[in-house]
Specification:
CATH architecture of the largest domain: Roll
EC number: 3.5.4.27
Order of helices and strands: HHEEHEEHEHEHHHEHEHHHEHEHHEEH
Enzyme class: hydrolase
Shape: globular
CATH class of the largest domain: Alpha Beta
Structural class: alpha/beta
Organism: Sphaerotilus microaerophilus
CATH topology of the largest domain: Methenyltetrahydromethanopterin Cyclohydrolase, Chain A, domain 1
Number of strands: 12
Pathway: One-carbon metabolism; formaldehyde degradation; formate from formaldehyde (H(4)MPT route): step 3/5
Distance between the termini: 54 Å
Catalytic activity: 5,10-methenyl-5,6,7,8-tetrahydromethanopterin + H2O = N(5)-formyl-5,6,7,8-tetrahydromethanopterin + H(+)
Length: 343
């Protein structure tokens, strides 16, 4: 594996928080139309409920998906009944590394004990642009990126996949680590059982591919700096009130229905190896609905093969040679057996 001269985003001056700010304002301005609710806590932190006590919407979920991508990606919806399922999301980014790993990836662990909350313990994985202000994950050292430009603007947005608002102790941590004043922080709450929550998780189909690409870097010899462009799609399931089943459906949408194309440079052999190893079918846990896999693992994510978290089908287009390497296949039959019943 070749060693890059510098981290892949070391010279990046883009601000994911600044680019996402107009999208956050649109979510606030169109709150009623999008089915979300906006309020400020006692300190001035803006909390946006996108599905806990309000209905939310697919449209809100698409916009939240673009916010998660740091304003560097598009999330759109299309009807494709000929594919066996009527509703699909398309995701694309001209800055996939920054948009997906530098912003959208849910990698910031935010937890509070019962003693700290005075009641029920809290845990969430934070995603979205504020991660790049805090830089608490080792991933940011590897990428060589911090969103320093947003400190002067004083605005940042965090997305949490939760069914209740974070306790003050968690918000205190976010404010402290990000360097934001309370009035500069927006936190979007998206339970997976909601329309917006389901949508914003499926909108991570491209990010899931990049996360596995990162995990495979040493094995394949693929350098993240050689990622140039990315596009993906996945079927959008209906939400369900059962939290495990809701999580299962969103994961299944990507594992069995997700399709991704990455445009890359660098050694052609690395691109070829990446294509072979990237699809979800390379995992020993492949073949069952994710909710069943999760239950068999004792509801412990860390007991599940991390190689399972990947799109079903991939195309790696090597720009220097003009070759496109294809691997994997979708299994819409599995999805349809668990997602629909004939009337």
């Amino acid at each position: 594996m070749s060693t890059p001269l510098s981290p892949p985003l070391a010279n990046c001056a883009l601000s994911v928080n600044a680019l996402a700010a107009p999208l956050v304002q649109r979510l606030i301005d169109q709150a009623d139309a999008l089915g979300v609710q906006v309020q400020r806590d006692a300190r001035g932190v803006t909390l946006i409920d996108a599905g806990i006590d309000v209905p939310g919407s697919v449209a809100a979920g698409r916009l939240i998906g673009e916010i998660c991508l740091g304003g560097l990606g598009r999330v759109s919806q299309r009807c494709q009944p000929e594919g066996g399922w009527p509703d699909w999301l398309d995701v694309a980014s001209a800055q996939p590394l920054l948009a997906c790993l530098g912003s959208q990836y849910a990698g910031w662990s935010l937890a509070a004990s019962k003693e700290e909350t005075g009641g029920k313990k809290f845990f969430a994985l934070g995603s979205g642009p504020v991660r790049a202000l805090a830089g608490k994950e080792a991933l940011f050292e590897e990428l060589g990126y911090r969103d320093r430009a947003s400190h002067s603007a004083g605005q940042g947005v965090l997305v949490l996949e939760v069914d209740r608002a974070p306790p003050p102790v968690v918000l205190d941590k976010v404010l402290r680590d990000s360097g934001l004043a309370p009035e500069g922080l927006t936190v979007i709450l998206t339970p997976t059982r909601s329309l917006a929550g389901t949508t914003q998780v499926v909108a991570r189909v491209l990010e899931v591919a990049l996360h596995k690409t990162h995990a495979l870097a040493q094995e394949t010899g693929f350098d993240l700096a050689h990622l140039i462009d990315g596009a993906a799609c996945a079927p959008l399931p209906a939400p369900t009130a059962d939290s495990v089943q809701a999580m299962g459906r969103t994961n299944d949408a990507i594992l069995y229905g997700g399709q991704v194309r990455l445009s890359v440079r660098g050694p052609v052999e690395a691109a070829h190896k990446l294509a072979r190893r990237l699809p979800s079918a390379t995992s020993a846990d492949y073949g069952r609905p994710f909710a069943e896999v999760f239950q068999a693992a004792g509801f412990d994510f860390y007991k599940i093969d991390p190689m399972l978290f990947a799109p079903a089908e991939v195309w790696i287009s090597h720009l220097d040679s003009g070759s496109t390497f294809h691997a994997g296949a979708t299994d819409l039959g599995l999805l349809l057996r668990h997602w629909q019943q004939e009337a």
